[in-house]
Design brief:
Elements (H helix, E strand, L loop, with lengths): L8 E6 L3 H12 L4 E7 L2 H10 L4 E5 L7 H11 L4 E6 L4 H9 L4 E4 L3 H13 L4 E2 L1 H13 L14 H11 L4 H8 L3 H15 L4 H10 L6
Parallel strand pairs: 1-2, 1-3, 3-4, 4-5, 5-6
Helix pairs in contact: 2-3, 3-4, 7-9, 7-10, 8-9
GO molecular function, one term: DNA binding
Keywords: DNA-binding, Phosphoprotein, Transcription, Transcription regulation
Protein name: DNA-binding response regulator
């Protein structure tokens, strides 16, 4: 690389659909200033890869198994705050948008127009600028205008990352044994996490936990 050349932006691409990753990679790798250096099939894998590789930008699908893109964004922000974050979603969803921004994302790209918006969003992120599709800007303005009348939300950091992980799996209908196997912990530990989650959120059963998980963007409605 000569003195006048800039190193391409190194990208971590996370989506649980291999064909989607392949299509996005073709778009990104065709640009001389962008290069995909790692791929992940779920949020937990994305966190591990971001922790162990030199990455400038992580592009995270919101709806992924084990750990969502929003959960992964929070964890990457905590571990490696220098990594810029972009969220990908099939949904023009107000709650997903707000949770993404709270998690540290600097952009939100709809998959339906990724071929049009993704490159611009990547470059904006690396310039330190936000990227939002037009409908998202409208949503933010509307939220600002009605904020005084809105009920106070549950604090985003009320649960630990592990408790969020357990909550997501509980809300998806997995048994304590299934969750224990997936997270490589004991059933007793799962039950303790569940009890702590219920206590912190002031809830009584899985139905209430599921409603909360949907509102928090942990699972799809």
């Amino acid at each position: 690389m000569t003195m006048g050349e800039r190193r391409p932006t190194r990208i971590l691409l996370a989506d649980d659909h291999a064909l989607v990753r392949q299509g996005l990679r073709l778009i990104l790798d065709a640009e001389p200033d962008l290069t995909v250096v790692a791929e992940a099939g779920n949020g937990a894998e994305a966190v591990d890869l971001a922790d162990g590789r030199e990455v400038d930008l992580a592009i995270l699908d919101i709806a992924m198994p084990r750990m969502t893109g929003i959960q992964a964004a929070r964890e990457i922000s905590r571990r490696a705050p220098e990594i810029r974050l972009l969220m990908l979603s099939m949904y023009d969803n107000e709650q997903y948008l707000f949770e993404s921004l709270r998690a540290g994302a600097c952009g939100y790209v709809l998959k339906s127009v990724a071929d049009r918006d993704l490159l611009e969003a990547c470059r904006a992120a690396m310039r330190g600028e936000p990227f939002l599709y037009p409908g998202a800007v409208t949503t933010l303005i509307r939220d600002y205008l009605r904020r005084d009348d809105a009920a106070e939300r549950q604090p985003a950091d009320v649960l630990t990352p592990r408790e969020e992980e357990v909550l997501k799996l509980v809300a998806e209908g997995h048994s304590s044994k299934d969750i224990a196997d997936m997270l490589v912990i004991s059933v007793k530990t799962v039950d303790r996490h569940r009890a702590n989650i219920l206590g912190k959120l002031g809830m009584r059963d899985r139905l209430e936990l599921t409603r909360y998980a949907i509102r928090a963007g942990l699972i799809e409605p």
